[in-house]
Amino acid sequence: MKERTTPTPEQVKSYLRDRRNWGRWGDKGAAGAINLITPQKRLDALKLARSGRAVSLSKPLPVKPSPQNPRPVQHYMKKTELSGGVGAAMDYVGIFPHGHAVTHIDALCHVWDGDGMWDGREPAKEITYDGARYGSVDAWSEGIITRGVLLDVPKHRGEPYVTVDSPVHGWELEDIAKEQGVSVGPGDAAVVFSGSNAYIADHPDAWSEGSVNPGLHGSCLPFIRDNDVSVLGWDMLDASTSPSEVSMPMHGVLRSYGVAILDNAQLEPLAEACASEGTYEFLLVITPLVLVGGTGSPVNPIAMF
Asked: Which domains, and CATH codes, for the chain?
């Protein structure tokens, strides 16, 4: 049985420092762990779609401000009247994808630390006002098509949501996978459901500036690295830490492991579908916008059963 003691901040730092995937994929490194999704992996994932049921993992684009959404999506309409009663309606949409409201995917260039960004690149050279030169979201322009595995924390705990005092730990993810009869392997998308919508209903100021929030503890890092996960999906983010600890340790999978993050996913419908379908594995399709040099992209991920 693996250690079930909460790791020290130095141990969490070591998970990110000592087990980097830097250089692992050579000249294909800009795509990071998405390289683990081979053509055969995609074909195997397609076989998981049997009933034809499709479930969106996206929240509606949030156009109204809230504590979680200080930068609302801008959506303007233009209506044009042409001759003969013919008309047309058109949209303008402006999106700030990062934050705690828009369902989006984080590119590998999104974060860095004092040792550099993904693959050991220097952010001063790679991040420009014209876009990122390495690890940007367009490295995934062919889409991300793989096997998804949902890890349902509220169901496992018998509680509606994860709390600040009880973050998700790595050994718990292992227990949930075993309990659900699934395994997580190379190239898979590990999707962790923590109950964020129910939490926000009871804590309206959650994920606002200065708030202390629940989520995944840095002890989850070995689970992601040991299983060669390609995508980490979630509805809660990193659990808040004290100043002496590692800030946003789970976002470190971007810079250290090359693992994409699917942020702010809408996972209640997926949890319901998994329970009714009797399986916690599914075909997952994520298609980022082809935004050259982009640090991320809004997405509408689709799970199929």
From this structure: 9-304 (3.50.30.50)
